[in-house]
Write a structure and sequence with these properties.
The complex is a heterodimer of chains A (238) and B (307). Chain A is an all-alpha fold. Chain A contains twelve helices and no strands. Chain A is globular. Chain B is α/β, with parallel strands linked by helices and 307 residues long. In chain B, helix 2 packs across helix 3, helix 3 packs antiparallel against helix 4 and helix 7 crosses helix 10. The chains are: A mainly alpha (238), B alpha/beta (307). At the A-B interface, helix 1 and helix 5 of A face helix 2 of B.
Amino acid sequence: MNPSWIIAKRELGSFFDSLVAYILLIAFLGFSGFFTWFEGNDIFIRKEADLRVFFGAAFWTLFFFIPALTMRQLAEEKKTGTIELLLTKAVTSRQVILGKFLACLMLVGIALLFTLPYYMTVAQIGNMDHGATICGYIGLLLMSAAYISIGLFASSITNNQIVAFLLALFIGIFFHFLFDVLSSSMTGWMGELFSTLSLSRHYDSITRGVVDTKDLIYFGSIIFLGIALSEIAISKRN
Amino acid sequence: MDISIDHVSKSYGSQKAVDNISFTVKTGEILGFLGPNGAGKTTTMKMITNYLEIDAGNITIGGQSVQAGTMNNHIGYLPEHNPLYLEMPIMDYLAFCAALQKVPKSNIEDRVRAMIRKCGLDVEKHKKIGELSKGYRQRVGLAQAMIHDPEILILDEPTTGLDPNQIVEIRDLIRDLGKEKTVILSTHILPEVEATCDRILIIDKGKIVADGTAATLRKQAQGQQLLRVRIEDAPLNLAYEAIKSLPTVALVDVLQEDSCLLEIHSHPNVLSNREVFRLCVQRGWVLAEMTSMETKLEDIFRDLTVS
């Protein structure tokens, strides 16, 4: 069996043992459900059979919840010293990081699976654009993967979970909306640059129903960079 | 598999933790690693397990450099503070470690059961690690180190936190393992090294200061005979002066004044027991006690590491 998979299974198990998983699932479904069905510009007011509202709510809920998932991943192992046990076994740093990445992504995946009833309900009500909805889910998964890799990186450079959480949010906030704000207030190549860097723009373009190679490359690069930097951070042991 | 440490150095910033040390450990040998706090024991062990990078020199196991990271599943390692996943049940944790150390899936259950029996965890096996006492956690640490039946065991203070009965059990276990495996263990407890190890390595300030069996270390450290003598019917100062003037005697210490108990250090490689006896016969003193003292390992350790 692949060592990453062994680690991922253990981490996923520990999410459920430590109640983190349940709290996350309940809070995620609660928030996104509340904004989708009850509050403000919800589905019934829009009178369109789509999940746009849900995707908007999930976009923000996941942004805050993912750092809470990733913060302990490496910081705690470093603090308690269990990372030493892990890395002196027949496992490479990369396999450890990939295992933890997979575990977080699986938990987000499980959370998204629980929102399938939303999809089925709305599909009953009206004529739904199935393609756009599937793209929306893909967009959420890609965004989550990007934030997980950023969160793992934040967790890999500190022993303190709170620092890891805040750092992940701090880095995330640039991608989530600061780059977007900057791009609209600037013109020329600077505006172009910030618009390219903005995660929300790429996410929007996917949820509109078009999965472009540019978007895939964008998310892929963030994921790759986050994982590679985390690997470097835990491989350096002086 | 042999472990060979070849001119290895390691610094933390400007502080030299390990300074150009070399030694080899052969299969079937149990090496006791002794030294005061901060001498570089743990650093050396962490370099052998490839957790720390080596600044200079090389460490090979069975001819292969440890820095490649390919030797990890031949090593069983118990780190210093025995870090464990406290939220995990013992059996799950051991199965997790076995899987990571590439134990075939069909063997994992057998290995976990065998280690639980071997380390005396049977009563507690369904508990979570966090619910265990320190001694039992130490046993879990040992169990995870041995789960994949490694050729090499690196144990950093394996008996800390154990009660005297458990210490004896663990020592027996280590001695038993040491017959066919290569074992390096570090400790502060000197009788433990004598009881368990074939060979002792004392390091101080990152350098090796002694290397050999307990017996050779004794010889090396003190080639001199040490006698404890009690003389009756003799004035203390007279006896003191007379013995001190014997040609074979280097030094006399008065241990008890009222009962005239003396400690006599001979010059290297000569014995003074006959001379002392003859002296007493000549003067008509009664020799009430004469014991040849063995140098204690504690003294050797102190001599070598206190400067």
